[in-house]
Design brief:
Low-confidence stretches of chain B: 402-407, 429-438, 448-455, 523-529
Strand content of chain B: 15-25%
Helix content of chain B: 25-40%
Number of strands of chain A: 11
Distance between the termini of chain A: 59 Å
Number of strands of chain B: 24
Number of helices of chain B: 28
Structural class of chain B: alpha/beta
Largest interface: A-B, 36 and 36 residues
Helix content of chain A: 25-40%
Radius of gyration of chain B: 36 Å
Mean pLDDT of chain B: 80
Oligomer: heterodimer
């Protein structure tokens, strides 16, 4: 049973629920084996040697977050996700105060952030989009990443120390200004190691991903063939991200379903409808999603 | 019977020795070598898992290199043979037919990247002749023993899609190949055998049986996936021996010899190139080595550990400015000390006991940084690689520049790109990491076409360029120092630095109506803020007329500079209408030099728009910095003649070139290209024509004169003798034929430091 409340010193605090990422397809992880191995290598702890705090860096949509999910799954720990944005204050990285109860029984409660919850419960904390955090919030992370594995919360008046099972990972986009400083002597660059570059998917990996998400594409290889043909026409020289591919196939499925429902005249059973995906649906999806496409 | 190194099968009283192997791992090559060297097990025929033609081509090349029964020759690294793939996997047959219908084209006309994605097709197959590969070692031993070498596999087979399988690390096979093979065979045995493999194995078994009919002891080496079934089939009495007349005698020429770039080659040399080097040192020639115990196997794990520690030590003790920062950051968290453990942990995730270079480089880049990864790559790749100069007739195989981190390659023939292949059979299963930039692949790309291009364009000789530029820079410095305070001059159309009230009033008092102005004042920072100030520099060596003298323009084609520009497209937009940029205008007499291709000019005058740079990138930066306004530009092809822009400028000023003495013309040509003034070095007592002064004033420029006598006479004499040498551009710098220095009688590095440091490093 997961703990939802904890006593820290004299204060009772609420904990964040762990995040259970949805399984993809048949659950098998596609590609990114080298990156995954690096990440897990960084998490190995030995006596006197605390684990590292890996940073996944890459273009949007290449699967950084998914990679972190997979690493957390393999490590057998609960995952706690903190989404970085510039509204987050340093305190909010540790603990926040929420009001609860009704007007008669009004009270304030402390809620540990996903980061602090992961620390006390020995889970994995993923800070997504680390580059979006404001400098003061980043500075707050320094002692945590410095090997001390603890930080002081003025709100609780207590130092929160990480369980030895605690692991940390962050993601960052290439375009974030912070990314440019990582190869220099920036205070964070010393602490966020290993820096794992997550590159583009290969066409074979994209194909594998589509196959898992949309089994119809495995039964009818023409669908994939048409996808690549349309993609080349629309995006000469660039590779699709998994999201591009999934979006096009998802849209194609919707178009096929809508066609069938229109033909059958029963729009009520939208959820149950199943339609056969054809190459023209892929073309139509490209037209709607990515602009006109020539189909010769 | 099974030994520690091999599996032996008795076939009707003949012995077939099988060495099952993991490709490119030294333990298996050592086993083959030990069998060939031992008088008890020495084979009288060699069979390998290659097609007959491939085996013939391989053995032929090794013999050409000098490998034979009477010689001990190291195998250069890394040679390879490529072949165009023609077969598709049977599993994609239906899809291939559909694809042709969809595209309305034959398979051959469908873009290769489509075939790659749709049909898992690889256009190019590569066989690396790695010394650490057991099959190559077997062929090598066959050449050294001078026994028949037979390729028993099918020549061309369709690729078989195989599921990736994790097997025990091949380093465990050291000294116990047979036991290791048995372990792995148990794992592989559960896998379904593909149709293609069945055919191959039957063919191999039949051919081996045929070979055993005429030879008592045959050594056969093949991959771990096949050996057990081949052994079974050889024992099977229903398999008839195939007639093995020897390898193909008439070669189809399908296999092309390649020299593989280190960036790709390291993957074929066990876990580390150093292992291949150690194997080569320890390796015994089957006939030339005295009988006795062989040197022990290469301790791969220990070698790798030692190399890894050496990399870390080397990095800590030897680091540049940028790397200091990086090392400080990494050392702070103890990464460098832990680095070998991290690499081992990373390799352990792939069940590898000994990491690969790829593991190390990935960890180095991620945990420490690019500087460390580069240094580790250089250290780990230190190896006596063969270069294109050693094998001028071979094509070269390089990583593609566009995707250095993927297994895509570029095929070059004598410097010309033959094609780019995104996937190569033989490279797919191997690590390929982006170390291309660190391993001088540029020199490989440049190798080849030099002899054909070297007599294309005449280049000035480097020592002359350096001395001329150095003296010109001195002249600029002298002119700036000796520049007198602004003189008061009568007004001639330009107010220059303003009206001189005192002189003007005096003039009025004298009843004249003249207006006087201050000459141009030297602006603050003229000399220090803009290093181009003072240029162009004009040298006038002769005060008298030079009968028969000719004008020459020396320039740089735009095509040399455009690729080096910070923004090539913008550069092309700005200057694309020109063919050349003029760098030097010379006036003098020309005569043939000591070598028929070297011309010598005796100069009377010289105009340098800028220092003469060694590197084309410096010229490009000069143009970018000066916005192209400090040089004359040439549109046409009239090589050597004066640029039409200069001729028309002089004409527009009322005195076409030739109306005045050449000394005046050369200064007039420089005036439009000065920032504030032209530096003119001229003999004492030589006076420039008033027209020149007037032109300068009209254009708001200043003439700063320096006496020629202030310079060393010997150096001036050297500058007056200009050599034109047939050279060619090699990348960004000029290369000359090797004998030029001897012909001219002057080493190329002479006057290397005559040009001040600021210009030597300018723009780099």
């Amino acid at each position: 049973m997961s703990v939802t409340q904890l006593t820290l010193g004299s204060k009772s605090v609420l904990l964040h629920e762990p995040y259970a990422p949805p399984e993809e397809g048949d659950g098998e992880f596609v590609g990114r084996i080298d990156e995954l191995k690096l990440l897990l290598t960084g998490w190995i702890a030995r006596p006197g040697k605390p684990p590292f705090a890996p940073l996944l860096i890459g273009e949007p949509g290449v699967g950084k977050t998914r990679l972190a999910y997979q690493a957390a799954r393999l490590s057998g720990r609960d995952l706690f996700v903190f989404s970085g944005n510039d509204d987050v204050t340093a305190q909010e990285l540790a603990v926040s105060v929420v009001s609860s109860g009704d007007s008669d029984n009004f009270r304030f409660e402390y809620v540990l952030s996903p980061l602090a919850t992961a620390m006390v419960q020995g889970g994995v904390c993923l800070i997504d989009e680390l580059g979006e955090l404001r400098p003061s919030a980043l500075a707050f992370l320094l002692p945590l990443l410095d090997g001390q594995h603890s930080f002081y919360s003025p709100l609780l008046g207590k130092r929160i120390t990480a369980d030895p099972r605690f692991r940390f990972v962050a993601t960052m986009n290439h375009t974030d200004p912070l990314a440019a400083t990582l190869n220099g002597n920036h205070k964070l660059s010393r602490r966020l190691r290993p820096v794992i570059e997550v590159g583009e998917f290969t066409p074979a990996e994209i194909q594998q991903l589509i196959g898992r998400r949309f089994p119809a594409s495995q039964d009818n290889p023409r669908l994939l063939s048409r996808f690549w043909k349309c993609w080349r026409q629309c995006n000469e020289g660039t590779a699709p991200t998994p999201w591009d591919a999934i979006y096009v196939f998802g849209m194609a499925e919707n178009i096929a379903t809508a066609e069938r429902l229109e033909r059958d005249g029963s729009w009520s059973s939208l959820e149950a409808a199943e339609a056969v995906l054809e190459t023209r649906h892929i073309e139509a999806a490209f037209e709607q999603a990515l602009g006109a496409v020539r189909t010769s | 019977m099974t030994g520690t190194r091999s599996v032996e099968i008795d076939v009707d009283g003949r012995v077939l020795t099988i060495v099952p192997a993991v490709h490119y791992r030294v333990a298996f090559a050592e086993a083959v070598n030990a069998i060939a060297c031992s008088p008890q097990t020495r084979p009288d025929a060699i069979a390998v898992e290659m097609g007959p033609e491939l085996a013939t081509v391989t053995a032929g090349w090794l013999q050409e290199i000098g490998i034979g029964p009477d010689r001990r020759v190291a195998l250069p690294c890394l040679l390879g043979l490529t072949v165009r793939a023609r077969y598709l996997s049977p599993s994609v047959r239906e899809r291939a037919l559909e694809l042709q219908v969809e595209w309305g084209q034959e398979l051959a006309d469908i873009p290769p990247e489509v075939l790659e994605v749709e049909l898992d097709y690889r256009a190019l197959g590569l066989v690396a002749l790695s010394p650490t590969d057991s099959i190559v070692e077997a062929v090598r031993c066959g050449c050294e023993l001078d026994v028949p070498i037979l390729g028993v596999d099918l020549e061309e087979v369709a690729p078989v899609p195989r599921a990736k399988m994790v097997v025990p690390d091949a380093s465990r096979a050291t000294g116990r190949v047979a036991a290791y093979s048995a372990e792995v065979a148990a794992l592989i045995g559960a896998e379904e055998v593909a149709l293609v493999d069945r055919r191959r194995e039957r063919a191999m078994a039949a051919r081996l049986k045929g070979l055993l009919q005429s030879h008592d002891r045959v050594l056969f080496t093949c991959g771990l996936a096949h050996w057990e079934r081949v052994a079974e089939l050889v024992r099977d009495p229903t398999i008839e021996p195939a007639w093995a007349a020897g390898n193909a005698r008439e070669l189809s020429g399908r296999y092309r010899r390649q020299l593989i770039h280190p960036t790709l080659a390291f993957q074929f040399l066990d876990c580390l190139p150093l292992v291949a080097w150690l194997f080569e040192r320890r390796r015994r020639h089957p006939l030339l080595n005295p009988p006795g115990p062989a040197a022990g196997p290469v301790p791969v794990a220990r070698v790798f550990d030692a190399k890894l520690r050496q990399c870390v030590r080397g990095y800590v003790s030897d680091k540049g400015d940028e790397e200091v920062k990086e090392a400080r950051g990494a050392a702070k968290v103890g990464i460098l000390a832990d680095f070998p453990d991290l690499v081992r942990a990373h390799a352990a995730f792939g069940l590898r006991e000994v990491p690969q270079v790829g593991d190390v480089l990935r960890c180095a880049k991620a945990f420490v940084g690019n500087g460390f990864a580069t240094q580790v790559a250089k250290n780990m790749m230190r190896f006596p690689w063969a270069s294109p100069r050693d094998f001028p007739d071979c094509d070269t195989l390089l990583p593609a520049e566009s995707r250095p981190s993927a297994s895509s390659v570029v095929l070059l023939r004598r410097g010309r790109v033959l094609g780019e292949s995104t996937r190569v059979r033989g490279l797919d299963e191997l690590e390929c990491v982006g170390v291309a930039d660190d391993l001088d692949s540029q020199s490989w790309r440049d190798a080849g076409p030099k002899p054909l291009r070297q007599f294309g364009i005449s280049h000035t000789w480097t020592p002359w360029e350096r001395l001329t530029s150095g003296l010109s820079d001195e002249a600029v410095a002298l002119a700036m120092r000796t520049e007198s305070p602004p003189a008061v001059e009568p007004f001639r159309g330009s107010l220059q630095s303003g009206i001189a009230p005192r002189e003007t009033l005096r003039s009025r008092a004298r009843g004249e109506k003249g207006l006087y102005v201050f000459g141009r004042r030297r602006q603050d920072g003229d000399s220090c803020s803009d290093m181009t100030e003072g240029w162009p520099v004009v040298w006038i060596f002769d005060a008298g007329p030079a009968a028969g003298g000719e004008w020459t323009e020396l320039g740089l084609p735009l095509s040399w500079m455009t690729p080096l520009a910070r923004d090539s497209a913008a550069f092309k937009r700005s200057y694309g209408r020109y063919r050349r940029m003029a760098a030097i205008i010379a006036f003098g007499h020309h005569r043939p030099g000591p070598g028929s291709k070297i011309s010598i000019s005796r100069l009377s005058g010289l105009l340098l728009f800028s220092p003469v740079f060694d590197d084309m990138k410096q010229y490009t930066r000069w143009v970018e910095m000066t916005a192209g306004r400090r040089n004359a530009w040439v549109r046409g092809l009239n090589l050597g003649a004066l640029p039409s822009s200069l001729l028309s400028h002089c004409e527009a000023q009322g005195h076409p070139v030739g109306h005045l003495a050449w000394q005046h013309d050369i200064v007039r040509m420089a005036i439009p290209f000065a920032r504030t003034g032209v530096t003119v070095v001229l003999p004492d007592r030589f006076q420039l024509h008033p027209v020149v002064q007037e032109e300068a004033i009209r254009m708001g420029k200043h003439l700063r004169c320096v006496s020629l006598e202030r310079f060393d006479a010997a150096e001036i004499e050297r500058v007056r003798t200009k050599q034109g040498v047939p050279g060619y551009m090699s990348g960004r710098v000029t290369e000359y034929p090797p004998q030029v220095s001897k012909t001219i009688g002057e080493p190329r590095h002479r006057y290397a430091k005559r040009l001040p440091y600021k210009w030597r490093r300018f723009g780099l």
